[in-house]
């Protein structure tokens, strides 16, 4: 028997055992599969193939380790994760637990008001997800369909993740957050089933948002692809995105976010996948002013400080930069108050001190790159 046959056989056995919750045998089979894969990587011609095989072996080892953990935590988490009316979970029994390991199910409380600026984006989301729910008859008459795919792209720290959560909070949707890192380490051989489970779980809720942050690491331009996991995950996700939209009974909003849109597979960007590609830019003056209000007003603040003027000086700063600046401005008088026992406040000097050693985290080259990409995306 070749190493390849050994690998295939043990992997299949390992995954089957894992699905059945037979953690001890799963672990042994997966370790054997990993060992065979290490052997195959030694036989591989060329560095690329060798690396890909080593990666696969590494993931199998992780999976085997997971079985070890699962043995101790599985019972507890399975019960905690299962809702009484979750027919699917009861039917499929143990196998849903593997999905629970990587699907993060949340009910965010964040609202649009917590996100400064981005009014156009918020309005667009209202059109897709909020108005159709509030006025179903009108939506039907005007043939407005709820749901679909929205890709948020823009420089880091501009509120993409926040906005996705706030959307869920705004419409009281269940928020399925997928971490590409988990997908890549835990989906060995199970990508298809997992994606199906994800879409099924989302369809079982009255409203759902499926959110993939850093989506470029999951659907990178194909030339960057190394492993067989990716080769199967990519088409499956694309297919899933189209499929759920056609089923159409339960509106699901599919949101992706990326700081590096040019690394995305062009197939993801085709019409029908992400219908809407939304540029999330650096905050404008009004948005910066609003952020300062959000992050300073509830703190002891010298009333003489002019937030409009401060906002003007923060051109080029991202939301995350401004948040950080405000936190630091609060830390200084806080520590002083602790030391002296006398309650101080955020004064102009404090703000000046903090400003003096802050600079925007997003470079102008990066901004140019985004603007070029967004023009190109708009005309594509
Ligand atoms: N538009 C915004 N309004 C309010 N806070 C923001 C905004 N953008 C960014 N922030 C702050 O920066 C942090 C990081 O934002 P995040 O949503 O993770 O950015 P991104 O996903 O675009 O990289 C947020 O937790 C928040 O504190
Ligand atoms: Mg983010």
Question: How would you characterize the overall build of this protein?
Answer:
It is a single chain. This protein is an alpha/beta fold and 380 residues long. It has three domains: 3-81, Methane Monooxygenase Hydroxylase, Chain G, domain 1 (Up-down Bundle), CATH 1.20.58; 103-280, Rossmann fold (3-Layer(aba) Sandwich), CATH 3.40.50; 285-361, Orthogonal Bundle (Helicase, Ruva Protein, domain 3), CATH 1.10.8. It contains 17 helices and six strands. The protein has helices at residues 3-19, 23-43, 47-81, 87-92, 96-102, 119-134, 136-141, 160-171, 180-186, 191-203, 228-247, 266-269, 285-296, 307-313, 319-340, 348-356, 364-379, and strands spanning 103-106, 148-153, 174-178, 208-212, 252-258, 276-279. A six-stranded mixed beta sheet has the order 1-3-4-5-2-6, with helices on both faces. Helix 13 runs parallel beside helix 15. The longest helix is centred in the N-terminal third of the chain and has 35 residues, at 47-81. The radius of gyration is 24 Å and the shape is globular. Mean pLDDT is 80; it is low at 74-97. Bound molecules: adenosine-5'-diphosphate and magnesium ion (MG). Adenosine-5'-diphosphate (ADP) is lined by residues 115-118, 156-162, 257, 283, 291, 294, 319-320, 323.
Concise structural overview:
With 380 residues, this protein is an alpha/beta fold. It folds into three domains: 3-81, Up-down Bundle (Methane Monooxygenase Hydroxylase, Chain G, domain 1); 103-280, P-loop containing nucleotide triphosphate hydrolases (Rossmann fold, 3-Layer(aba) Sandwich), CATH 3.40.50.300; 285-361, Helicase, Ruva Protein, domain 3 (Orthogonal Bundle). The protein is built from 17 helices and six strands.
């Amino acid at each position: 028997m070749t190493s390849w046959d050994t690998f295939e056989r043990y992997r299949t056995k390992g995954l089957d055992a894992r699905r059945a919750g037979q953690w001890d045998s799963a672990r042994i089979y997966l370790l054997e599969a990993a060992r065979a894969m290490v052997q195959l990587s030694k036989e591989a011609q060329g560095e690329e193939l060798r690396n890909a095989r080593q990666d696969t072996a590494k993931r199998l080892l992780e999976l085997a380790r997971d079985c070890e953990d699962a043995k101790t935590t599985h019972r507890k988490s399975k019960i905690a994760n299962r809702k009484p009316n979750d027919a699917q979970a009861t039917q499929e029994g143990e196998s849903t637990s593997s999905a629970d390991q990587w699907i993060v199910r949340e009910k965010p409380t964040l609202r649009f008001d917590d996100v400064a600026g981005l009014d156009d984006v918020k309005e667009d989301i209202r059109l897709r997800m909020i108005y159709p729910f509030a006025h179903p008859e009108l939506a039907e008459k005007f043939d407005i369909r709820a749901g679909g795919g929205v890709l948020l792209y823009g420089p880091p720290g501009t509120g993409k993740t926040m906005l996705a959560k706030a959307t869920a909070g705004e419409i009281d949707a269940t928020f399925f957050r997928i971490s590409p890192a988990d997908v890549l380490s835990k989906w060995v051989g199970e990508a298809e089933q997992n994606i199906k489970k994800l879409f099924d779980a989302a369809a079982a809720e009255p409203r759902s948002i499926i959110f993939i942050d850093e989506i470029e690491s999951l659907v990178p331009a194909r030339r960057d692809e190394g492993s067989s996991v990716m080769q199967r995950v990519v088409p499956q996700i694309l297919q899933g995105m189209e499929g759920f939209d056609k089923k159409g009974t339960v509106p699901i909003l599919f949101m992706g976010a990326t700081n590096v849109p040019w690394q995305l597979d062009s197939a993801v960007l085709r019409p029908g996948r992400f219908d809407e590609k939304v540029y999330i830019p650096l905050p404008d003056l009004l948005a910066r002013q609003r952020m300062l209000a959000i992050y300073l007003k509830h703190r002891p603040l010298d009333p003489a400080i002019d937030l409009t003027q401060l906002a003007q000086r923060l051109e080029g700063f991202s939301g995350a930069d401004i948040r950080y600046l405000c936190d630091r401005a609060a830390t200084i008088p806080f520590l002083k108050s602790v030391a002296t026992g006398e309650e101080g406040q955020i004064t102009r000097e404090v703000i000046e001190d903090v400003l003096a050693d802050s600079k925007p985290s997003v470079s102008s080259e990066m901004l140019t790159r985004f603007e070029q990409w967004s023009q190109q995306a708009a005309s594509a």
